[in-house]
């Protein structure tokens, strides 16, 4: 043994709470995802099939763009979670009998397609790389 201490792996480090700025960023992305969900829910039945495609493209663009801008998976998960929460809450009917989503193919495509896009964007988002040298492994 050489007596040097190696830095701990990123997986071996304990979890820390995010900084206040990063938490505010994630909260803002969550709210932006919720706004995109409400806008998509109102747009997709008004202009079918263009509204449906536009609503799903907006969600995908928001999740992918946020993930790349933040550089971490949480950047893509926050707007996806905001979108999913709002859309699920909008599917419930009120006691008066009012509802936002009709029982039609467009509504189901919006719900299922949006959830699939959210899962794909959150799964394929860039991961934070561990600190270290840029290129080769040590010999």
Compressed to H and E, one letter per element, the order equals HHHH
Q: List the uncertain runs.
A: none
Strand tally, please? Answer: 0
SS-based class: mainly alpha
Described by the principal axes of the CA atoms, the overall outline is elongated
| Radius of gyration (Å) | 20 Å
Q: Percent range for helical residues?
A: 55-70%
Write down the overall mean pLDDT. 80
Strand residue percentage: under 5%
Could you walk me through the main structural features you see in this protein, from its secondary elements to its overall organization?
With 139 residues, the protein is an all-alpha fold. The chain contains 4 helices and no strands. It has helices at residues 20-46, 50-70, 73-90, 105-124. Helix 2 packs parallel to helix 4 (105-124). The longest helix has 27 residues, at 20-46. The model has no long low-confidence stretch (mean pLDDT 80).
Outline the fold blueprint:
Layout: H1 20-46, H2 50-70, H3 73-90, H4 105-124
Compact description:
By secondary structure, the protein is an all-alpha fold. The chain has helices at 20-46, 50-70, 73-90, 105-124.
Question: Keywords, please?
Answer:
139 residues, mainly alpha, 4 helices
